[in-house]
Prior knowledge:
- By secondary structure, the protein is α+β, with helices and mostly antiparallel strands.
- The protein has 2 domains: 2-101, no CATH class; 105-171, 2-Layer Sandwich (CRO Repressor), CATH 3.30.240.
- The chain has 8 helices and 4 strands.
- A 4-stranded antiparallel beta sheet has the order 2-1-3-4.
Amino acid sequence: MEAAFEAVFGTGRELAWYQMSARAALVFLATWLLLRAAGRRTFAQKTAFDLCIMLLLGAILSRAVVGASPILGTLAAAAVLVFMHRLVCMLSATWPAVDRAIAGRPIVLVKDGHEDRHARRRAMLSDEDLDANARAKLHTAGWNDQRNGRGDTQWDVVLERDGQISFVKHPRQPGHDTPRPSYPRTEDAHAPG
């Protein structure tokens, strides 16, 4: 059995083309199964934590394809990473404090049309970054068109935990108190980096 495995998948770095191809097929199937086991969050959330698992899996599994590491040991290491990721995700779903520690909190950059420049600096977002996001999401010439609640609309701008920027519009209604959306508690804009 071991001789047949070695004939198909080879050992070490001196692999024939068909052995590397067989390794690639095996690693593809193993990766697909591991990502199914990891759950949909791995690609859906795109937080720093989720990005780590994708990068590590790619780095580890590529070693198996080129013969830099033993194929079975590499697949075992990848499985350990995936199940650790799944465990942390389950803990995050159960305890909000774990979720905040892993993924952080959103940062409110603009609230009711009033910009928090300190929060913007802390989030490392330039005027050009906001302009680009406003063009893409609001289909305007840039953020300056929406800034400071000109016209009949006020805006909130939130840097989400996954790095996306959300724009929330509040229509002004003269003489009425328009209910404002409440956001989850955000990171303290005055806390160090």
